[in-house]
From TrEMBL:
Keywords attached to this entry: Glycosidase, Hydrolase
Domain Glycosyl hydrolase family 13 catalytic: 13-406
Keyword check for Hydrolase: yes
EC id: 3.2.1.70
GO BP terms in the entry: oligosaccharide catabolic process
Protein name: Glucan 1,6-alpha-glucosidase
NCBIfam families in the cross-refs: PRK10933.1
Family membership noted in the UniProt record: Belongs to the glycosyl hydrolase 13 family.
Gene3D superfamilies named in the record: Glycosidases (3.20.20.80), Golgi alpha-mannosidase II (2.60.40.1180), Oligo-1,6-glucosidase, Domain 2 (3.90.400.10)
Catalytically driven reaction(s): Hydrolysis of (1->6)-alpha-D-glucosidic linkages in (1->6)-alpha-D-glucans and derived oligosaccharides
Function: The physiological substrates may be short isomaltosaccharides.
GO MF annotations, alphabetized: alpha-amylase activity; glucan 1,6-alpha-glucosidase activity
Organism of this sequence: Streptococcus cuniculi
UniProt cross-references to InterPro entries, sorted A to Z: GH, GH13_cat_dom, Glyco_hydro_b, O16G_dom_2, SusG-like_C
Length: 542
């Protein structure tokens, strides 16, 4: 496998609406991001994945795009975007754009033109189908945001497909003109000097809805190979596909370099572990550490040279990891740093979601009026309608709702966490007075410095990038593994629990690489690990 820059960097995801507001309107913006580039440089990241900044009516906060080649007004202008690219590139930070091409907004001119006119060339840009004889939807497919995936249009007496909200009609990838239009838009951005694309729900573009196929459709990989040839294939860009439900075998189809598709995918196997089998993410169950080990280790081992892992705990759709699988009350620092060390020492490209580096937590709500996200709001209506108790639905929302990740970034203890001088579009977590960037930077023992150190270690030690991976069988709550490269062995040991755990091995410690306690770790014969203790040591070759 040829080596690529995107295997060596750490990527930082920005959700622009919630990152930093430069003009006091309560909404984060591009100038706000530029103001914080030095902070990101200090953290040490090499690329930013920018959630969508394109023109959008914001039914799904920018994942409903009405113009791919213009910037959302609240975020700024194309000039601001170019300035951001220039300023980021100056600091050796690449900008990875979010590519949302499974669907557009219903306010995109393509949809508007085709909607009322079945003869328009744009009609076939989307997926229209006749009602059943009784007038009902063509089939039973449901939207990821609750209800039918089909919306009736009275003017033309047909239904259109929307796998997400009804303001996000699905594009028809079988239409060559659709594909050409998208490739030309991608090249428009490549020509501006971007570093790559994160591809939103890309596993859905090969859909055949009338045959009941949504994910992993028959021509999906053909389209991606064509996209690669027509757009980024000539440039060394980072391309990462969002692929819910990918197995290692499927991931290899996307990321085996010989197939010329994508750099890597986001797989979600570990992310589904705290949900009841066969149910929805809202149907909670406790995480089993055993399952977590199995899932993560499988991906470390099975991709081999036919793919590359992306490593993440968080994104804008997921709850905050320290609240989810750590302990955000009694062991906030310890568990947040353990999660960081455990993930960043694995093989693959790590992604940090804004605020993760200071241990931002979930924000429980008392009533649905405090929620903003469309997925949450729709689910609430659906479940209350189906007879669920309010308290039980709120419990699910507080554990899994997307607003948890989308609360504005806390920069300081000032009003609204210094995020805005106005009224924030979504309230901050009230704990911003203690969990904020300024406090983190002032405290040499903060979570921030663990992330900074992990990123620096990756720059200094190729073993982290290229080393082999081997799990060490131990008791359930200890997650321990080796990395080996060019005659060096690193041992990673983490206690994934609120209790002490005992770890044994025969290795001789040569030096401590990183840890989240001040323990001396000399002898590994019999180590009592404190709750959430994590360390990495170099050991003597055996
Ligand atoms: C992806 C995005 C999510 C969005 C959905 C529809 O899952 O990450 O935020 O709502 O696609 O675009
Ligand atoms: Ca603003």
């Amino acid at each position: 496998m040829n080596k690529h820059w995107w295997q060596e960097v750490v990527v930082y995801q920005i959700y622009p609406r919630s990152f930093n507001d430069s003009n006091g309107d309560g909404i984060g913006d591009l100038r706000g991001i530029i103001e914080k580039l030095d902070y990101l440089k200090l953290l040490g990241i090499g690329a930013i994945w920018l959630s969508p900044v394109y023109k959008s009516p914001n039914d799904d906060n920018g994942y409903d795009i009405s113009d791919y080649e213009n910037i959302m007004e609240e975020f700024g202008t194309m000039e601001d975007m170019e300035f951001l690219l220039a300023e980021a590139n100056k600091r050796e930070i690449k900008i990875v754009m979010d590519l949302v091409v499974n669907h557009t907004s219903d306010e995109h001119p393509w949809f508007i033109e085709g909607k009322d006119d079945p003869n328009s060339p744009y009609r076939d840009y989307y997926i229209w189908a006749n009602p059943k004889p009784d007038g009902s939807a063509p089939n039973e497919l449901t939207s990821a945001f609750s209800g039918s995936a089909w919306e009736f249009d009275a003017t033309t007496n047909q239904y259109y497909l929307h796998q997400f909200s009804k303001k996000q009609p699905d594009l028809n990838w079988e239409n060559e003109e659709v594909r050409k239009s998208i490739y030309s838009m991608m090249n428009f951005w490549i020509d501006k000097g971007i570093g790559g694309f994160r591809m939103d729900v890309i596993d859905l573009i090969g859909k055949r809805p009338l045959e009941g196929i949504l994910g992993n459709g028959p021509q999906l990989h053909e389209y991606l190979q064509e996209m690669n040839r027509e757009t980024f294939g000539q440039h060394d860009l980072l391309t990462v596909g969002e692929t819910w439900g990918a197995t290692p075998a499927i991931a290899k189809l996307y990321s085996n370099p010989e197939r010329k598709e994508l750099s890597m995918v986001f797989q979600f196997e570990h992310i589904g572990l705290d949900q009841q089998e066969g149910k929805e993410k809202w149907d909670l169950k406790p995480l089993s550490i055993k399952d977590l080990k199995t899932a993560l280790v499988k991906w470390q081992i099975e991709l081999g040279n036919e793919g590359w892992n992306s490593l993440f705990w968080n994104n804008h759709d997921l709850p905050r990891i320290v609240s989810r699988w750590g302990n955000d009350t009694d062991y906030h620092y310890e568990s947040a740093t353990l999660l960081a060390i455990l993930l960043h020492m694995m093989k693959g490209t790590p992604y940090i979601y804004q605020g993760e580096e200071i241990g931002m937590t979930n924000t429980p709500i008392q009533s649905i009026d405090e929620a903003q996200d469309i997925e949450t709001l729709n689910m609430y209506q659906e479940r209350i309608g189906a007879g669920y108790q309010v308290s039980e639905v709120l419990e699910s929302i507080n554990a899994k709702g997307r607003d948890n990740a989308r609360r504005p970034m806390a920069w300081s203890a000032q009003k609204h966490g210094g995020f805005t001088t106005g009224e924030p579009w979504l309230a901050l977590n009230p704990n911003y007075s203690t969990i904020n960037v300024e406090a983190a930077l002032e405290n040499p023992q903060s979570i921030f410095y663990t992330y900074q150190q992990l990123i620096q270690l990756r720059k200094d030690h190729p073993i982290i990038i290229w080393g082999s991976f081997e799990l060490i069988p131990t008791v359930e709550h200890i997650f321990a593994y080796y990395r080996r490269y060019e005659g060096k062995t690193w041992l990673i040991v983490t206690n994934f629990s609120d209790e002490e755990q005992v770890f044994h091995c025969q290795d001789k410690v040569q030096k401590i690489i990183i840890q989240n306690t001040t323990s001396t770790i000399a002898d590994l014969q019999d180590v009592t690990l404190t709750p959430w203790q994590a360390f990495v040591v170099e050991v003597e070759e055996q």
